[in-house]
Amino acid sequence: MDFGYDKISEGTPLVTKGSIIQFSNEMCGTSLKLKEIHLHTTNQSEHQLTDNCTWTINSTYDRLLEGMLGITDSKLEFNSIKPIIPESADVVELLKNLKKKADNLNEYICHSEFAQLENLLDEFIDSLNKYIYLARNS
Q1: Model pLDDT, residue 1
Q2: What is the per-residue pLDDT for 13?
Q3: Could you give the CA distance from residue 119 to residue 87 in angstroms, rounded to a whole number?
Q4: Cα separation, 71 vs 100, whole angstroms
Q5: I need a surface site. Which of 47, 69, 86, 137 has the fewest CB within 10 A?
Q6: Separation of alpha carbons 69 and 86, rounded Å
Q7: First CA to last CA across the chain, in angstroms?
Q8: Which 3 state secondary structure label does DSSP give 7?
Q9: What is the per-residue pLDDT for 137?
Q10: How many CA atoms lie less than 13 Å away from 39 in the CB half-sphere?
């Protein structure tokens, strides 16, 4: 997925404030879809897993945006939050898609002014890997 990266020398994508907001909107939409699954399921382990996933996504979403705003010494414009809600209702697929997007952002964030957010994304990706494993085995 293209997060609207600007280009730096030799075509290396550069993470921008807009690309972080775009990824945050992906996180928000996935969290909403997981909450929908959480409220629909009759499986206790899926219910608990989706609850844990939404907590992790929302916590990371908050930390990522607050970190970005601190780095840029700015505020978030109203109407910037536009959740991108995935179609799928499969927990593993949702988590794998979000992980792919997080990996993509993390690959380029170190080349930007937002490099200090790389550890936060690493932790988030690690959590997604754990949740993918648990979702496959629940």
Answers
A1: 43
A2: 66
A3: 29
A4: 25
A5: 137
A6: 26
A7: 29
A8: strand
A9: 87
A10: 6
Residue in this structure with the two tokens 């399921």, named with its chain if needed: 41
As given in the structure block, the two tokens for residue 67 are 């970190």
What pLDDT sits at residue 28?
97
| The model's pTM | 0.89
Q: List 6's β-bridge partners, or say none.
A: 14
- Is 4 exposed, middle or buried, given 0-12, 13-18 or 19+ CB atoms closer than 10 A? middle
Report which of 113, 100, 107 is spatially closest to residue 17, judged by C-alpha positions: 113
Please state, in angstroms and rounded to a whole number, the distance separating the CA atoms of residues 138 and 114.
36
Q: Which residues of the chain fall below pLDDT 50?
A: 1, 5-9
Phi-psi region of 4 (alpha: psi -120 to 50; beta: other; left: phi over 0): left
Rounded CA-CA distance 59/94 in Å is 17
Closest CA to 19 of 9, 10, 8: 8
Q: How many CA atoms lie within 13 A of 84 on its CB side?
A: 14
DSSP tag of 14: E
Quick one: tokens of 125?
Answer: 């990706």
